[in-house]
Amino acid sequence: MKFRYQARTKDGELQVGFVEAGSKESAEKILLSHELFILLLEEVKKPNFFERTLSYFTRVRLKDLVIFFRQMAILFESQLPLNRILETLYDQSSHPQLKESAFQILQDIQSGLSFSQAAEKQTEIFSPFAISMIRSAEITGNLDRAMLFLADYTEKEYALVSKARSASIYPLVIILTFIGVAGLLITSVFPQIRPVFEQAGVKLPLFANIIISTGNFIIDFWYVLVLFFVVGLILILNFIQTEEGKALMDELKLKLPIFRKIFLPITISRFAYATSMLIEGGIPVAQTIEVVSNTINNAVYKEILNETASNIKAGMTLSESLRQYSYYFPEIVTQMIAVGEQTGRLKSMLEKVANFYFREADNVVSNLTDLIQPVLIIIIGILVALLFASILIPIYNLTSRIG
Question: Is position 161 within any domain?
């Protein structure tokens, strides 16, 4: 179970955050063991089926975050007070959830919370990575620089995602066109020619019978199929938002050949960027890796990085720990990190890794159509051949009999 808390330290400093425990009493004991005076402790309830489904359509999208962070970075560069920045964001934001978040952060800051503590309560907008960046920037007094980095980082992510979506339009159009044409033939053309072959005594091949029977089934029970499609779509969208669904999707992204070419460099680039910035902010490497594990949005890498953080605390270096997972961290990554550790230029090497893999991800996404096209042509070619063979072979047999 997950609980949200507000508490004060023995020095009077206000803290907010989350704690996981088996019960509320256990959560209280954990907080008390850290010498915290509890002000508020409430369970974070998991959203139900309908809330998860609805949140898929109403969530804050990456494009909205790009605009939000860019506006915030510009306002910070203008040296405006934080209260004034949040008031401006509230006035300027068109997305209702971003607008509400700006208002809530402003209220929390006015009640005595720091910016990072207030942002920590807005999990839909501020990732653990963003919160860690803000927290370290508060200590060093570089909030303007931290927000500029977050804006640039989010913008790069959005540019890459947008390019991937654009590159996938062509294959998607081809697939939908084939499905549309095949559906028209199966439901409108093939059922009408079956009686012709039956009257002529021509036996239809098995595949032709399957196609014609499928067409008849679609015609008779189309409303059932539509219902199943809608229900199935809702269930799938709901499942991929659960922890099990996300873990399965993340595993598939790294196992399927074409998807691996895209998501592996993107994930490594995100890992290296986040790690380099947190190290620059003065956060210890082990703590940095723990924070980064929650920022790269991949359950497989999260587990690996949590183990890596434990290994670092036990005395291993970052490169030694990552070398154990060569399938997820190629040799070039661990070698460059090892060089950075040996020369004291870890941040610089991580930036080079990030830039290298970001360019690789960009190139792969740019050539996405070329990667998919051969496979797509082969699959659709086979399906078209089977589709037309199922009708051309009986026509040939019919003409042969007439002749």
Answer: yes
Tokens representing residue 309 in the block = 């953080």
Collapsed DSSP state (helix, strand, coil) of residue 273? helix
User: What tokens were used for 19?
Assistant: 């704690």
Task: Check whether residue 264 and residue 313 sit in a common domain.
Answer: yes
How far, in Å, CA of 352 to CA of 337, rounded?
A: 10
* Residues 6 or more apart in contact with residue 249 via CB below 8 angstroms: 240
Determine the structural domain holding residue 265 and report its residue range: 252-366
Give dist(CA 308, CA 321) in Å, integer. Answer: 6
Tell me the mean pLDDT in the region 16-31: 79
Whether residue 76 sits in one domain with residue 139: yes
| 266-302 tens-digit pLDDT | 889 888 888 887 887 778 888 889 888 877 778 889 8
The dihedral region occupied by 170, where left means phi > 0, alpha psi between -120 and 50, and beta the remainder, is alpha
Nearest to 163 by CA among 354, 357, 367, 360: 367
Same domain, 56 and 157: yes
**Pair (37, 73) in one structural domain:** no
Q: Which residues contact 41 (CB under 8 A, 6 or more apart)?
A: 3, 4, 5, 6, 24, 27, 28, 31
Cα separation, 200 vs 364, in Å, equals 55
Residue given tokens 């949040």 in the structure block: 86
User: Mind listing the pLDDT tens digit for each residue in 146-174?
Assistant: 888 888 888 887 887 787 777 778 778 88
Split into its structural domains, the chain has a count of 3
Contact 55, 47 (CB under 8 A): yes
For residue 383, is it within any domain? no
The CA-to-CA distance between both ends of the chain, in Å, stands at 77
Q: Is the pTM above the cut of 0.70? A: no
